[in-house]
Amino acid sequence: TLPRVYVTRQIPPEGLKILRESGQVQFELWDSDDPVPRQELLQRVKGVDGLLCVLTEKIDAELLDAAGPNLKVLSTMSVGFDHLSLEELKKRGIRIGYTPEVLTDAVAELTVAVLLATSRRLIEATDEAKTGGWGTWRTLWLCGYELANSTVGILGLGRIGVAIAERLAPFKVKKFIYTDMEPRPELASAINAEYVSLDELAKQSDFLAVCCALTPETKEICNKELFSKMKNTSIFINTSRGGVVNQEDLYEALSTGQIAGAGLDVTVPEPLPTNHPLFTLKNCVILPHIASASYTTRNAMSALAANNLLRGLRGEPMIKELKL
Ligand code: GLV
Ligand code: GLV
């Protein structure tokens, strides 16, 4: 009999087509655009051999116990893996597929978009235009900050950070700097970026873009201490995970003018409640976690997640496997 697989969401068509046409799995789908309720999920995973999930599902001991010992392959349709209890997966010998690289272009593109929306105050500006604030042309009205001649800092230099820098360079950025657990000379040389301490990154950056994974080491790494070292003309951008930021400290930094603005594609929690204080700030642009949301990329992620799953179930190397 074919391996049984549970797919926790209506994933984009390319991945579903691959699963269907493979003839290699018997799969059940939570056929909805909304997350599967936890209790339902715990029921549905009983006895499965493989699981294809998205980032809204917590894959922890409770879930893995509910699935039972048949579960050998987990495939997440995401580059992030902070929703997975890696230790629990490792303990059970479950292999993990994920979707790096296919989303790099889309995420870098959106990061540039939210950066410019924040630095040039685009959301505020369209609101003013629509709601009668556009009285006349004024000399310093809605002024923002330029990328030209700026220093751009990247916190966590991976493929995405490099792709962001490549896109920003034509805006005449003067200098790229980055920090990470250790220097990454091969990646850095492609964008001529200098390795600095977190301290120096905060002090020197006119634009600080966070591109690291959320791990115990990076949890709330962007906090009061970091914001207090930044210039009051600096723009903070986060398209990685909300958990890397202490949001109370960010609110404080934005509302007191400690930093000039923030553009966030990710928050804690998601969705951010509509009455959250950050939504009251004109200098904070908040997007609902859409960095990889292009049709091309979401389909590529879906296809990669499906192929990782099938290969894993066949006992072959996955296309993109997270090695623990
Ligand atoms: C999106 O946030 C992802 O991890 O793919
Ligand atoms: C993921 O971590 C990436 O940088 O592509």
TrEMBL record:
SUPFAM superfamilies: Formate/glycerate dehydrogenase catalytic domain-like, NAD(P)-binding Rossmann-fold domains. Keywords: Oxidoreductase. InterPro entries: D-isomer_2-hydroxyacid_DH (IPR050223), D-isomer_2_OHA_DH_cat_dom (IPR006139), D-isomer_DH_CS (IPR029753), D-isomer_DH_CS1 (IPR029752), D-isomer_DH_NAD-bd (IPR006140), NAD(P)-bd_dom_sf (IPR036291). GO terms for molecular function: glyoxylate reductase (NADPH) activity; hydroxypyruvate reductase (NADH) activity; NAD binding. GO terms for cellular component: cytosol. Residues 113-291 form the D-isomer specific 2-hydroxyacid dehydrogenase NAD-binding domain. Belongs to the D-isomer specific 2-hydroxyacid dehydrogenase family. PANTHER family: 2-HYDROXYACID DEHYDROGENASE-RELATED, GLYOXYLATE REDUCTASE_HYDROXYPYRUVATE REDUCTASE B. This is Glyoxylate reductase/hydroxypyruvate reductase. It comes from Seriola lalandi dorsalis.
